[in-house]
Structure of OsmC family peroxiredoxin:
Amino acid sequence: MALTSESTTVWTGSLFEGSGTTRLDSSKVAEFPVNWKARAEGEAGTTNPEELLGAAHSACFSMALSNILTEAGHTPESIQTTAAVTFQPGEGVTGSHLLVSARVPGLGEAEFEAFAEDAKVNCPISQALTGIPITIEAELA
């Protein structure tokens, strides 16, 4: 059975002077302000689509890596993933870089990197982002 997750954005005004809010409807856990300045230059207290995409990518990747490791008999103690999504005005989203650190008892660095590469390729959000380069740096903590 497929699960549909919903979010809603309400925008007022022009792209450059306007602003909006993005609400996580399915979970009802948050509502975020959004505007162009946050997207093009960064603005404290205001998010942007790329930050939200990075949140989705880092969460999905961490879950995929945990599953791959556990199925191989290496249950992780912890996984920390940062997804840095790059946006270039006029070009769009140009890449996502995953920075991963994990504690996995009994696993060597080379084997861990292979599992991380597998998770990068097979995580559903990575698969949805096939139009952009996805890079990864993975290491054991």
